[in-house]
Amino acid sequence: MDKILEVKDLHVDFDTYNGTVHAIRGVSFHLNAGETLAIVGESGSGKSITVRSILQLLASNATISKGEILYHGDDLLQKSEKEMNNIRGNKISMIFQDPMTSLDPTMTIGKQVAEPLLIHNNVSKKDAMKRAEEVLRLVGIPNPAARMKDYPHQFSGGQRQRIVIAIAIVDYPEILIADEPTTALDVTVQAEIIDLLRELQQKIGTAIIFITHDLGVVAGIADRVAVMYAGRFVEYGSVEDIFYNPQHPYTWGLLDSMPTLDTNEDARLNSIPGTPPNLLDPPKGDAFAPRNAYAMQIDEEQQPPFFKVSKNHFAATWLLHPDAPKVTPPAAILNRFKKFEQLGGNAK
Amino acid sequence: MEQIPQIPKEKFKLVHDENNAEQEKISTPSLTYMQDVRRRLFKNKVAVVCLTLLSIIVLISIFAPVIAPHDPNAQQVTLSNLPPKLGNLNIPGMNGYQNMGGKMVDAYKQAGAPKGTSFILGTDYLGRDLLSRIIYGTRLSLVVAVLATLVDLLIGVPYGIVSGWKGGKTDTFMQRIVEIVSSIPNLIVVILMMIVLKPGLTSIVIAIAITGWVTMARLVRAQTFQLKEQEYILAARTLGEPSMKIATKHLIPNLSSTIIIQTMFTIPNAIFFEAFLSFIGIGIPAPNASLGTLLSDGQKAFRFLPYQMWAPAIILSIIMIATNLLGDGLRDAFDPQSSDH
Amino acid sequence: MTKYILKRILYLFLTLFIIASLTFFLMKMLPGTPFSNQNRMSADQLKIVKAQYGLDQSVGVQYVRYMVGLLHGNLGTSFQFNNEPVTALIGQRLAPSMQIGAQAMIVGTVFGILLGAVAAIRKNTWVDTLATFISILGLSIPSFVLAVLLQFYLAYKWKIYPVALWDNFQSSILPTLALSALPLGTVARFMRTEMVDVMSSDYIELAKSKGNSSWRVVAKHALRNSLIPVVTIIGPMAVSVMTGSMVVENIFSIPGIGEQFVKSITTNDYPTIMGLTIFYSFLLIIVYLIVDILYGLIDPRIRLGNGGKE
Asked: Where would I find the ABC transmembrane type-1 domain in this sequence (chain B) (predicted)?
């Protein structure tokens, strides 16, 4: 497998009224060609900032204080603004969360879809418009030839998100970053958009980084999953690893708060108590410790390293240390472990 | 992936098993909204400077009778048009000398002023002390501004609240009135009122207020409209709280930012109108001084005695700039999103 | 859209009718006769003059006659100024006022847009601070103060421009400058706020993610979107330019309608005051109407309907 993108030890800080917020505190991951990596976490965990750092589309008060972002071995953080512009929308492009606000209200959608082509490829306006029309058809806009001259407000939310996707894929990017592309949509439309992304991935072979706070969406699209909490990854592995053999108590909490087909009608969904830590002054140890029912003394003193669970599955929790006591995860998680064994895995 | 670190065994003891109460603690220190607003305002250096300047000007105006060195209306025709002089300090431009036919002469000696006489900002064409006139003039201009703003608040705020709160037909009707009033150019209404009423303080205030409340009413209505739909107001209504109580307990505090900010823009507007009317000769009647009449008098002599206009012009501009900037500062303090980010 | 315009025109006449009636009755409420500051006239003379102006009839008759006159474009006859019809007075004096008014609006808007855009793009830098400072000065210093200062330094002292003269373009520069300060400040502030808003919007982020260079983002996306709302403040700006023109024309001795209006006020020339009031209102309402229609035309959300939902 080809590693096309590798993020190493990324740190991002924000200057605010109250001081410096350490929003991203050492994130590392890689992306293989053509695969889908989902990054999951609650709002404020830093997943959006992580992917925006790749394209360097951060707010003006943000600085990437440390780390490397290697795209085919080249560090994007060393590139000039001009070089970055050659990558944005061409090699790596992005889909945004809210389709109601992410299209320019005063430009026809034809022009908006054709714009990346005109920037990156030496094509005539006519050819670009023709290609834009094809792509609009590809993403499922009915009668695209006639609708090219329409403005965003003349489309529904779902259609607008299709247009946003059309803009992102019009130049066949190698990497597509989807920042909660379904969060603002109706549930029925959500499924359509996920299907569309999957279909497009097969057609054009792009790799996708998919950001969401909704684990339910992940199962349908991702190959690998990373769970993020308070500016760090806490666990990553294949979809099966994360769903059926989770190791970090935070992942347990997330899964436990999600209904499944097996959840019976009168069972209660559990929530994770407490709130995420204040990243103005990040905790010394495991950031999740104060909310963690399985916290140990070491969790408050030292950040856990990643422990290897299986070939591609890692989790940053001291519970995996050989000296740690054996704990019993919540019942729902034990059920998942059972399923994992049925699938032929070897759960702990 | 990494070497498994060696950790003392006792560190692997499970800690907190039941103290859930602590988990619900919010880790950022909480400030009340007004504390936060004040903190942001005082962090804004420009706003603090403006606030200080305005406070000084207001204090001087309040204590004008004590501070002003002379009677602002006392005429000493022999001592007319004297240039500024600050005691016996020989500061160029402030030493009582004047250019006459290419030569600098001591204007005070020439006018036969008694020894030791000095007017810090000079005198006008009737020999009145300009400094005292400016202090009293500022006072009068501020009174006009404060009264006009007060009327603005008394009409505009209740009108806006009622219109926004009642909604429906009442709102449509009240908005029609606002539409018509605001489509008449306010300057024209003000001038017409000034012609019909006798020139003077009351007429100016009435003339300014008659059109001024419309903007306030509009803003308050829009805000009320939004607030009405807020959950906590809906909750209060569902619980059967009387309208009056909702208005005073929930609406007014949440409208306060809109009202305060708009007030900061009404004040310079009123000061401008007073100056404008007095400048074209239908404002404050002689012999009373306002910033407008002083500018009007100063303009007539400006070519030869520029100091007579500079002083009121600078004070007027300072008041206008400071209120505008303070208004900006308040807006940013109330709504940090408007400037930050 | 057509229906909307027709409705607006109907409102226009309604508003004008209200203004005309209001002005008429306000003028009738004035104590004394308009001739009290003329040379003393005998009772007989007064009677003749009153009859000449139709002032001997009942207020109701005078009102109807005035309104009918208005419908025929007759604004009455001046008491002063050689008994000229008010419309003729306006006709003679419209051109200079329009010239400096239009020049001031254009200068103020163009430079205000530039200043505001630069401030927004360079937000929170010294450029922004400087631009904000200039726009606050423009907003805060009354045009008549500025006019006097410009006249004194640029014309009287340094003799760059004529002091008070009305013949060529040269002589319109100082009044234009004095009048343009306020629109400049207003537009710059408004533009900055709008553009800062636009620059932080999602669609600008999307435009950046397409690989647009920063100047292309501004030129293709940010500028147009922040310019559209600027159109809405042209109306209020026209009002402030008109206000300013009354004193600025006076200071520079420009034979315009503003100067005429102030002169009529100080000489109690009621028909002229009434006529000019109605004329001014008409002008402003027309400006507001044009601006509204323009806004509808350039904003696709309104032009193509279904607008105003977001």
From this structure: 138-327
Average pLDDT, chain A: 88
* Distance (Å, whole) CA C191 – CA B315: 28
B295 in contact with C, Cβ within 8 Å: yes
Say which CATH number the domain at A101 has.
Answer: 3.40.50.300
Residue A348 has a pLDDT of 57
- The number of folded domains in chain B is 1
A216 shares contact with chain B (CB less than 8 Å) = no
Query: From CA C52, how far away is CA B79, in angstroms rounded?
Result: 51
**pLDDT > 90 in chain A, percent:** 46
- Domain harbouring B282, CATH code: 1.10.3720.10
Q: What length does chain B have?
A: 341
Mean pLDDT of C107-117: 94
Give the three-class secondary structure for A74. strand
Reported ipTM: 0.86
Preferred mutation among A292, A297, A319 to probe B, highest tally of B CBs within 10 A: A297
Structure tokens at C269: 């020339």
Overall fold of domain C87-262: MetI-like fold (1.10.3720)
Enumerate the β-bridge partners of residue A14.
A21, A62
Q: What pLDDT is stored for residue C82 in this prediction?
A: 66
- Which tokens in the block code for residue A172? 């066949």
CA neighbor of B133 nearest in space, from B75, B191, B219, B53 = B75
Query: Could you list the residue range(s) of the whole structural domain that residue B67 is in?
Result: 45-82+119-338
Q: B245: which residues sit within 8 A by CB, 6+ positions away? A: none
Residue A178 has pLDDT above 80, yes or no: yes
Q: Taking CB atoms and an 8 Å cutoff, what residues of chain C touch B307? A: none
Number of domains in chain A: 2
Cross-chain residue pair A154–C304, CB shorter than 8 Å: yes
Spell out which residues of chain A touch residue B43, defining contact as CB-CB under 8 Å.
17
Closest alpha carbon within chain B to A17: B40
Q: Which residues of B touch A (CB under 8 A)?
A: 1-2, 4-5, 7, 9-17, 20, 22-28, 40, 43, 336, 340-341
Tokens encoding B158:
């209740």
How many Cβ atoms are within 10 Å of C214's Cβ, its own excluded?
A: 12
Q: Do A153 and C208 touch (CB under 8 A)?
A: no
Instruction: Name the closest residue on chain B to residue A283, using Cα atoms.
Output: B27
Q: Which residues of A touch B26 (CB under 8 A)?
A: 275
**Has residue B153 been placed in a domain?**
yes
Is the distance from CB of A28 to CB of A305 less than 8 angstroms?
Answer: no
Residue B339: pLDDT over 90:
no
Give me the long-range contacts of C78-81 (CB less than 8 A, separation at least 24).
Answer: C78/C264, C78/C269, C78/C271, C78/C272, C78/C275, C79/C34, C79/C35, C79/C53, C79/C268, C79/C269, C79/C270, C79/C271, C79/C272, C80/C264, C80/C267, C80/C269, C80/C272, C81/C269, C81/C272
pLDDT tens digits for range B229-274: 788 888 888 888 887 788 777 787 788 888 888 888 888 888 888 8
Residue C33 has pLDDT above 60, yes or no: no
* Cβ-Cβ contacts under 8 Å, A101 against chain C: 201-203, 310
> For residues A40 and A254, is the Cβ–Cβ distance under 8 A?
yes
Separation in Å, CA B10 to CA A289, A296, A297, B124: 17, 10, 8, 90
SS3 content of chain A, % helix, strand, coil (to 5): 35, 25, 40
> If pLDDT is split at 50, 70 and 90, which confidence band does B327 have?
confident
Decide the pairing of beta strands A62-71 and A175-179: unpaired
Q: How far apart are CA B58 and CA B135, in angstroms?
A: 10
